[in-house]
């Protein structure tokens, strides 16, 4: 805040009283009322709002689930089933939470891919992108921790496999793993701390999301043309224009997620997680949550334990550097005739990696995973930095309003 | 003219959106609040059977029923007489003793002070029994008589009588 | 751009199909009354299924997550449930003398397990643990069809196959060898209501019961689901109109 500016006057005396002491009313008016959005933003720009809503729903449903959950290896499985059977609307809370997690990732992936396709990570929004990658990392950690809590077979063995990744680190690996687990295997101490962390991390995510949103509001949202706002005519106010657009997206999303919650609540769950954890029997197919599968594919594509772990974390870490790897001044792929197709191929490749990540790591699947791995890193390290040596971008429109002029002709 | 009509329609649509959205939000919150009510396994927690054969006159035992303490007391003749002869007008929460017991010598009460939920003293021989020879709540000084009725102090009502029945002469089933 | 959404839907859809793969015969699909968006359980089938469970399965398989009171949901009266529960003995205590004692089960008790613990269960079954059936249809891919076919999948082994000792040949079991002897035959349970008691009927009723046991909320859930989706569609339609009116003047 830049010192006490002239306080805004409101008709309502209560608002006035608050505004004079804490100018929060004008803040919300500025950031969520009159905030200018480029008027050519399509529905991909609704996924940020959608993700925020899901985050809140996840936190709320999680708090109510925690009221009935017991983080103890002897009782966790039964307490989750008790929630499903005996707690009033407990089944609804749990299915909202478990399917909400999957949909959260779907929404976030679309949000990320939108940012990549339209070049939203470029100047001046690099920090915004970095905060976003942090949110993504925190989400992965939270989802992994939460998956342990029902204490089924997949919970137990997923936790075992993932924590064993740390033992790949030379010298300190084993000690680090034991420190993380608080035991020699995944045990009661592990379950307790995973619960504690799973409870607190979403609030950290919420904090980073606040920064993420505040950062995007500094220079305003990007748009499908990837050009800067030139005049007021290029924009609409958030309220009511974008709010109603976002609300429509929320309703469409509501239909989709309700269809799954009410009519196929276990479609995205692994059946083995309805078998209580048994440290003596590993299920035949251990797979991660499908939304983490692309990285799991990278892990398994490398024949060396440490190498696999490094490449997997590298695959996420490289996202942080995307704003500097991409040297093109043009943001939107709509105006980059070659990069556009490499970008599309990247999306397809990511999808394929996810597919093979859920398949057994052998034969053709392993070969595909290795090719996918090469393209993943090739895209970031070779294609993205050097494509503008040969690519000639299309001419950008002079302003956002000009796009519509062109259309009417 | 058309402009005005247009605006009217527009604000009508926006208003219905907002009100329908509010209804939806309220309906969404409902299951969350409902989930905090006792679950079915808690509600189903059944009854407790108590053997009262070994209780001496003038003594009582405390048993647990649905997580709450229940006082079972075998009253002496003097206590019974005291309980029966009280002038109802002296009582803060008037009730006659006959309505509070099934058999004169046996008094069964939920042992929770009706003020703020402490467990009154008076079960052990060494306990304070209060000014009316019943129970005394140490938290805020409520005195109960030998029928468990409130006589003095901040508690608003008498100690509650749980649902119970005599299965035979030596067994009570509470709940 | 729409292509992104397609990718995701495809991803989302196919990712669920993987685990279904196995070397055994693919499952024939039976028709179930609880399938579909308005699916419900048939109370008669549920009660018959409970009878099959208690007469055939409960000798080895526990259902630890169920309470006797849950049977009220499938159409038994409170007194019937009390009578059913009282046939079982549970260990309670300690009493005033500090000793554990036996008493008849009550509706608020969990289903009594056939064995004291997992080790006893293993010891009595050639080392094979008879799994708890509380959520078995959720714990298997395509659970209802899997159990149904498995129960009816006992056949004579092919000539070139050697079945291990204490094992039985079943075309739907992974590896085709199962430690459970064929549990259901024609007429192995007599129904009081005179329903045909062929092996298929017994298996079907049992699976309906097991599905209810795993998802007792199914009917309420589907009912509520229709309302919620209708609400979103109506709200979405109004918002769509409002949004179009708003945006008409922008472009």
What does it look like?
- The complex is a heterotrimer of chains A (409), B (175) and C (251).
- Chain A is mostly helical.
- Chain A has helices at residues 13-21, 24-33, 47-66, 76-85, 90-117, 126-148, 153-165, 173-181, 188-219, 238-263, 293-301, 305-317, 322-325, 339-357, 363-386, 400-408, and strands spanning 36-38, 235-237.
- Chain A folds into 3 domains: 1-33, no CATH class; 40-286, Cytochrome Bc1 Complex, Chain C (Up-down Bundle); 296-400, no CATH class.
- A two-stranded antiparallel sheet of chain A has the order 1-2.
- Chain B has 2 domains: 1-37; 43-174, 3-layer Sandwich (Rieske Iron-sulfur Protein).
- Helix content of chain B is 26%, strand content 25%.
- Chain B is built from 3 helices and 9 strands; from the N terminus they run ααβββαββββββ.
- Chain B has helices spanning 2-34, 40-43, 77-84, and strands spanning 48-51, 60-65, 68-74, 106-110, 133-137, 142-145, 150-152, 164-168, 171-174.
- In chain C, the strands form 2 sheets. Chain C has a two-stranded antiparallel sheet. In chain C, strands 3-4 form a two-stranded antiparallel sheet.
- Chain C has helices at residues 2-14, 43-57, 78-86, 118-123, 143-151, 199-214, 218-248; strands spanning 89-92, 101-104, 168-169, 177-178.
- The two termini of chain C are 21 Å apart.
- At the B-C interface, α1 of B face α7 of C.
Tell me, rounded to a whole number, the average pLDDT of chain C: 88
Into how many domains do the coordinates of chain C divide? 1
Q: What is the count of β-strands of chain B?
A: 9
Mean of all residue-level pLDDT scores of chain B: 88
Offer a quick outline of the entry.
The complex is a heterotrimer of chains A (409), B (175) and C (251). In chain B, the strands form three sheets. A three-stranded antiparallel beta sheet of chain B has the order 1-9-8, with no helix packed on it. In chain B, strands 2-3-4 form a three-stranded antiparallel beta sheet, with no helix packed on it. Chain B has a three-stranded antiparallel beta sheet with strand order 5-6-7, with no helix packed on it.
């Amino acid at each position: 805040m830049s010192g006490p500016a002239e306080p805004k006057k409101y008709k309502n005396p209560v608002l006035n009283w608050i505004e004079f002491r804490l100018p929060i009313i004008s803040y919300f008016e500025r950031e969520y009322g009159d905030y200018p959005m480029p008027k050519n933003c399509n529905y991909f720009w609704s996924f940020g709002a959608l993700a925020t809503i899901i985050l809140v729903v996840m936190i709320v449903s999680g708090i109510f689930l925690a009221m009935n959950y017991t983080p103890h290896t002897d009782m966790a499985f039964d307490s989750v089933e008790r929630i499903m059977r005996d707690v009033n609307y407990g089944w609804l809370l749990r299915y909202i939470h478990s399917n909400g997690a999957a949909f959260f990732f779907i929404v976030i992936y679309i949000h990320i891919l939108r940012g990549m396709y339209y070049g939203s990570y470029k100047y001046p929004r690099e920090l915004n992108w970095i905060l976003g990658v942090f949110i993504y990392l925190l989400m992965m950690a939270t989802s992994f921790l939460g998956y342990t809590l029902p204490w089924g077979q997949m919970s137990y063995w997923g936790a075992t496999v993932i924590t064993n990744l740390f033992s790949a680190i030379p010298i300190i690996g084993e000690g680090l793993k034991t420190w993380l687990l608080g035991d020699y295997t995944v045990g009661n101490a592990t379950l307790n701390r995973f619960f504690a962390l799973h409870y607190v991390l979403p609030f950290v995510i919420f904090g980073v999301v606040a920064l993420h949103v505040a950062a995007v509001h500094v220079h305003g949202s990007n748009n499908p043309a990837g050009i800067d706002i030139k005049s007021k005519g290029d924009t609409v106010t958030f309220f009511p224009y974008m709010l109603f657009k976002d609300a429509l997206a929320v309703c469409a999303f509501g239909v989709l997620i309700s269809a799954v919650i009410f009519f196929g609540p276990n479609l995205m769950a692994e059946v083995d997680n309805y078998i209580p954890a048994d440290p003596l029997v590993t299920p035949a197919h251990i797979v991660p949550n499908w939304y983490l599968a692309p990285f799991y594919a990278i892990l398994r594509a490398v024949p060396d334990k440490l190498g696999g772990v490094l490449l997997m974390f590298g695959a996420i870490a490289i996202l942080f550097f995307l704003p500097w790897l991409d040297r093109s001044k043009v943001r939107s792929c709509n105006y980059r005739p070659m990069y556009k197709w490499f970008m599309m191929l990247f999306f397809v490749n990511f999808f394929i990696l996810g597919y093979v990540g859920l398949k057994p790591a052998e034969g053709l699947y392993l070969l595909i995973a290795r090719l996918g791995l090469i393209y993943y890193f090739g895209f970031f390290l070779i294609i993205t930095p050097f494509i503008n040596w040969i690519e000639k971008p299309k001419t950008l429109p002079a302003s956002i309003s000009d796009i519509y002029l062109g259309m009417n002709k | 003219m058309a402009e005005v009509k247009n605006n009217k329609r527009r604000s009508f649509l926006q208003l219905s959106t907002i009100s329908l959205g509010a209804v939806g939000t309220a309906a969404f919150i409902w299951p969350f609040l409902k989930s905090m009510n006792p679950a079915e396994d808690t509600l189903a927690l059944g009854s407790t059977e108590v053997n009262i054969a070994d209780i001496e006159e003038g003594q009582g035992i405390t048993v647990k029923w649905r997580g709450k303490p229940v006082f079972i007391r075998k009253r002496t003749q003097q206590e019974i007489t005291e309980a029966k002869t009280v002038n109802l007008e002296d009582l803060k929460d008037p009730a006659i003793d006959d309505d509070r017991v099934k058999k004169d010598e046996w008094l069964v009460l939920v042992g929770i002070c009706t003020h703020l939920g402490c467990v009154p003293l008076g079960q052990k021989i060494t306990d304070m029994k209060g000014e009316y020879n019943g129970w005394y709540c140490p938290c805020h000084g409520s005195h109960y008589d030998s029928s468990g009725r409130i006589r003095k102090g901040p508690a608003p009502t008498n100690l509650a009588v749980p649902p119970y029945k005599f299965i035979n002469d030596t067994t009570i089933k509470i709940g | 751009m729409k292509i992104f959404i397609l990718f995701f839907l495809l991803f989302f859809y196919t990712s669920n199909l993987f685990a279904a793969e196995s070397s055994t015969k693919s499952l024939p699909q039976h028709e179930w009354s609880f399938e579909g968006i308005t699916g419900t359980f048939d109370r008669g089938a549920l009660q018959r299924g409970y009878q099959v469970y208690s007469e055939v399965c409960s000798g080895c398989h526990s259902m630890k997550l169920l309470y006797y009171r849950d049977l009220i949901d499938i159409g038994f009266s409170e007194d019937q449930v009390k009578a059913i529960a009282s046939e079982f003995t549970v260990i309670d205590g300690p009493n005033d003398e500090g000793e554990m004692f036996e008493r008849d089960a009550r509706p608020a008790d969990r289903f009594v397990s056939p064995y004291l613990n997992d080790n006893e269960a293993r010891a009595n079954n050639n080392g094979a643990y008879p799994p708890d059936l509380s959520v078995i249809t959720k714990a298997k891919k395509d659970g209802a069809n899997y159990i149904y076919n498995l129960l009816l999948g006992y056949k004579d082994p092919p000539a070139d196959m050697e079945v291990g000792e204490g094992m039985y040949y079943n075309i739907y079991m992974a590896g085709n060898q199962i430690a459970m002897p064929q549990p259901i035959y024609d007429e192995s349970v007599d129904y009081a209501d005179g329903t045909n008691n062929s092996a298929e009927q017994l298996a079907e009723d049992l699976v309906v019961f097991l599905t209810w046991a795993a998802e007792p909320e199914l009917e309420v859930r589907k009912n509520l689901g229709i309302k919620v989706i209708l609400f979103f569609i109506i709200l979405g339609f109004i918002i769509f109109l409002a949004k179009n009116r708003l945006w008409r003047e922008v472009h």
